[in-house]
Amino acid sequence: MQIPMDTKSTLSASALRLDAAHEVERIADAIRTAVHSTLKRRGAVIGISGGIDSSVSAALCVRALGPERVLGVLMPEADSAPESTVLGQLLGARLGIATIVEEITPILDAAGCYSRRDDAIRAVVPEYGPGCKSKIVLPNAAHHDGYRVFSVVVQFADGRQTNTRLTREAYLSILAATNFKQRVRKMMEYHYADRYQYAVIGTPNRLEYDQGFFVKLGDGAADVKPIAHLYKTQVYQLAEYLGIPEEIRRRPPTTDTYSLSQSQEEFFFSIPLDKLDLCLYGVNHGMAAAEVCQATGLTIQQVERVYRDLASKRRVSRYLHHAAVLVEDVV
Amino acid sequence: MTSMNVKQMPTTQVRTQVRQFVVDSFLFGQSGHTLHDDDSFLDLGIVDSTGVLELVGFLETQFQVSVANDELIPDNLDSVSKVATFVSAKLRLNGEQS
Question: In chain B, what residues touch A138 (CB-CB under 8 Å)?
């Protein structure tokens, strides 16, 4: 993909503009080849979250394979926002694809997802209990000079909110418990993939794929990942071109994982995604922090902090990307 | 280990305990001989945000000090030496206040 830059020394905010029509056809060709020729599957199954990434991925699959060969699976659970299912069904109707709603709360309950998470929160917030809502958050990467460690925000029934730094044990316990959600969803997607001989479509964008914003063998598992090379702002460009409903394009990116509303920014990425796109672009093209300031509106010091955070998350993501290690080559 | 013992612990002993913890927890007991006390944990990529939580938990338990959020900065926690200096200063303060 050719990405133009306005000058050689300064990144422009328009650097990520792409030819949407050309890119859609290029991706559709790649999906067709992957699903039918490489993987020998009859179609595609995709988890529909009501967010922009799964919506664009589903629309691209429809372009590639036709609506009759795309199955959307909506998998709400107890902490999902009700609008996620509404938007998912709106998308399915707009694309003309079959959709199935699988309520996964009973599976998660049986696995202890909610009780394990609540026990872990109670370890640092003893008064946490029924009627409380929660989420875990990180401080802003650009405005925070120290280590960025997770804390849990608890909202009590009377509306009072607390923010408590997590211990390592509590953080990992909450993470391990909530990761059931992504893994159960993927299990369900592969159920339908087996049932119809379809390929499973993964929906990470470039930020998510590069930075490890996915659950290993959860939303990180898939047969085809058609937008993993696209920056988030480019996904929005394709969304507009593909006619994704405005309600979905306007919706702020959310994890839709915790009972309190939680943006992807406060959970993981820590600065607005359009700025992070430009910083990642700068890193990928060997640009100094000073060259990225103008386009992002950040100071050199802030860009340098973001660069450090990007490098740190890349290191952590290596394990997530790593395939199973064998003692010797087998095939 | 009693509270009095911890407060009187010399910096060299703090350093030894911190170093042993880092080697055991982040290097899995391997390559400890290659870690110098002034090596940056960030530069070596051996302590991530989860690791910081683990390190702080260790300091609070082992040395009975409290670490505030605004103290979670590389100047305090980015090497064995910095951690030892940070903890020793807290221990001295605690000793003076008790």
Answer: 49
Which of A145, A147, A169 is the closest to B52 by Cβ? Answer: A147
The answer to whether the CB atoms of A150 and B49 lie below 8 A apart is yes
Using a CB-CB cut-off of 8 Å, the residues of chain B touching A173 are none
pTM score, whole prediction: 0.89
Residue among A145, A165, A169 minimizing CB distance to B69: A165
Nearest CA in chain B to A163: B69
pLDDT digits (tens, 9 = 90+) for B40-77: 998 888 888 889 999 999 999 999 999 998 899 999 99
Helix locations, chain A, DSSP H? 20-32, 52-65, 82-95, 105-111, 113-124, 168-196, 206-211, 232-242, 246-250, 264, 273-284, 289-296, 300-321
Q: What is the DSSP letter of A268?
A: I
Domains observed in chain A: 13-110+172-319 (3.40.50.620), 112-171 (no CATH)
Cβ-based neighbours of A315, under 8 Å, separated by 6 or more = B45, B48
The first and second tokens of residue A224, run together, are: 């085809």
